[in-house]
Design a protein that fits this description.
Elements lengths: L11 H32 L10 H9 L3 H16 L1 H8 L5 H17 L5 H17 L2 H45 L3 H33 L3 H11 L25 E6 L5 E6 L2 H11 L18 H18 L11 E8 H6 L9 E3 L5 E3 L35 E2 L3 E2 L2 H9 L1 E8 L5 E3 L8 H12 L12 E5 L14 E5 H9 L3 E4 L5 E4 L11 E2 L1 H8 L1
Parallel strand pairs: 3-5, 3-8
Antiparallel strand pairs: 1-2, 4-5, 6-7, 8-9, 10-11, 12-13, 13-14
Helix pairs in contact: 1-3, 1-4, 2-3, 5-6, 5-7, 6-7, 7-8, 8-9
Length: 541
């Protein structure tokens, strides 16, 4: 098919054939993409590409999230270790979703029984691949769960069997030692040697039998048992497998997962998989908060059980953020920073000031900034206590002043709700938006400087990672005499921090009071300073 318009000229059967061909090509290209990513990762080309990791470079190159890029890179590396699955994807026997499900399922089984030897791991991959050839990716995950349960049960049984054999061996040794102590010294020594040799041989034979039995059952102890028998010393009295007995899959916290996915309608979907104990703790915490509440006049609570659980989770998070445990009373939900431009403060224009809301580094909601008078919407009752004025921008605009640090812009209504019960701190900023004071009579402390940095930089100045993930970096290094002042600090994430210290990147403070990143000459021969991340976004908009 050469052009989209050709679709309308195809016969029914040709349409079906073309779709099958496109799907096949898609699988082939997916295999090629993942293989290329794996090889780039293996060669360590991140630094040459001017990024701390390959996933960061790839995410920026194709405009996807870091998480998606990381998953693709990890899958590519895994597929190169299991060429049978890679060949099946390249041959369009399975889809990329199947390959991902096989990799995830394999990881689940290995976590359930880390003692699995290579032969049994290959068997797991082969079975999951065979399942993928005839079913959906979801059914592959279901099969992997069944294999994980079986592997954990068998590993636990082997561990218990080894412990039992070891106890019996110790008891037998203790009994024989007691019997030998009453014999004549010379005769006793000879008898003991003979008895010991006979028992050792018997023990070796038992160990060999145990190894064969356990190996057939599907665990790594078969090999270990065989080695014990070959050594001739351990027998059934050999060492018990290291560590505690493997736990059932339903009780294994290493398998716990929790994700929060953004949806197309700006809502978010929770998903996860947790062990029995964590589920019990969660249900215990939610239970007293999910009781039906009668309506006016004693009417039945109209909320469904699912809605009651959602409301209970919301209330539980509120109480945690307020640090009040299960009490009904607590501190304010938000710490609001009302940002006041200095020029407005000096002109006494009488104009209303504007405000925005962002979560602070502790995870509580923090109100933050006003933008310039020409672009920003007024906060109304939420930010400055006045009546609302008509906004010239909307939530999708970069100048919209109301935003949450993790989930982005919010409506004026939500800003008013959050700032209704909040601690209000005025922050005076200059015409570049750089904080001059935080409305306190004491000198700036570390936490205050962190707040000022968050207001100015918003995020990592190099890559845009959220402010709570960042560190305050000394632009002029501390060991070189740099001071811990706002004009010598910048927010950088851990990866970019390493780039500055070890990757020949530099930071410099501009005359406008904002930090700039200077790339090494291997990235940009001219070493042109790059504005901080959130300011680049504003200029691009």
């Amino acid at each position: 098919m050469k052009a989209w318009g050709d679709v309308f000229e195809l016969a029914d059967q040709d349409l079906v054939s073309e779709l099958a061909a496109v799907t096949s090509d898609e699988n082939v290209l997916a295999a090629a993409r993942l293989t290329l990513l794996a090889e780039i990762e293996r060669r360590g080309l991140a630094m040459k590409l001017g990024h701390s990791t390959v996933t960061r470079w790839y995410a920026r190159s194709v405009r996807i999230t870091d998480g998606s890029a990381a998953r693709q890179s990890a899958l590519g590396l895994w597929l190169t270790e299991w060429p049978a699955v890679l060949d099946a994807l390249a041959g369009s026997e399975i889809h990329a979703a199947h390959a991902s499900a096989i990799a995830d399922g394999y990881a689940t089984v290995v976590v359930a029984d880390p003692t699995l030897d290579q032969r049994h791991r290959e068997a797991v991959v082969a079975e999951l691949l065979e399942t993928a050839r005839g079913t959906t990716a979801g059914q592959v995950a279901t099969r992997a769960q069944a294999l994980a349960h079986s592997a954990a049960d068998e590993a636990r049984a082997r561990h218990q069997k080894a412990e039992k054999q070891h106890r019996e061996w110790e008891q037998e040794q203790a009994r024989r030692t007691g019997d030998d102590a009453g014999d004549d010294a010379g005769a006793g020594d000879a008898d003991s040697a003979a008895a010991g040799g006979g028992y050792s041989g018997a023990g070796d034979g038992a160990a060999g039998d145990g190894a064969a039995g356990d190996g057939a059952a599907g665990g790594g102890d078969g090999t270990a048992g065989g080695e014990g028998a070959a050594g001739g010393g351990a027998g059934v009295g050999g060492p018990v497998p290291q560590g505690p007995p493997p736990v059932p899959v339903s009780e294994n916290p290493d398998l716990n997962r929790f994700d929060l996915h953004p949806l197309a309608d700006d809502r978010f979907q929770l998903s996860g998989n947790v062990d029995r104990l964590m589920a019990e703790k969660l249900l215990t915490a939610l239970s007293p908060l999910t009781a039906p509440r009668p309506g006016p006049g004693g009417a039945r609570d109209p909320r469904s059980p699912s809605k009651r659980r959602a409301d209970a989770l919301d209330l539980m998070i509120d109480r945690h953020l307020r640090g009040r445990g299960t009490g009904a009373a607590g501190g304010s939900r938000a710490s609001v920073h009302l940002i006041v431009p200095l020029r407005d403060l000096l002109t006494h224009s009488g104009k209303q000031q504007t405000g925005s809301v962002t979560p602070d580094s502790t995870g509580t909601t923090t109100a933050a900034s006003t933008s310039d008078d020409d672009a920003a919407a007024t906060a109304g009752g939420a930010g400055a206590g006045g009546g609302a004025q008509k906004s010239t921008v909307g939530p999708g605009d970069v100048h919209w002043p109301f935003h949450l640090d993790w989930t982005g812009p919010m409506s004026r209504t939500l800003a008013e709700l959050l700032t209704c019960d909040a601690d209000l701190t005025p922050v005076i900023v200059d015409h570049h938006g750089v904080p001059l004071a935080l409305g306190r009579t004491t000198r700036l402390a570390t936490e205050d400087q962190r707040t000022a940095l968050t207001i100015r930089d918003r995020c990592c100045v190099m890559c845009g990672r959220p402010a709570p993930w960042c560190q305050a970096h000394h632009i002029a290094f501390w060991e070189h005499g740099g001071t811990t002042d706002l004009n010598n600090l910048a927010l950088v994430c851990g990866e970019c921090h390493r780039l500055v210290h070890h990757g020949h990147w530099q930071l410099a403070m501009g005359t406008d009071g904002h930090p700039y990143a200077i790339p090494p000459d291997t990235v940009d021969p001219t070493r042109q300073p790059i504005p901080s991340y959130h300011r680049r976004k504003q200029r691009a908009a």
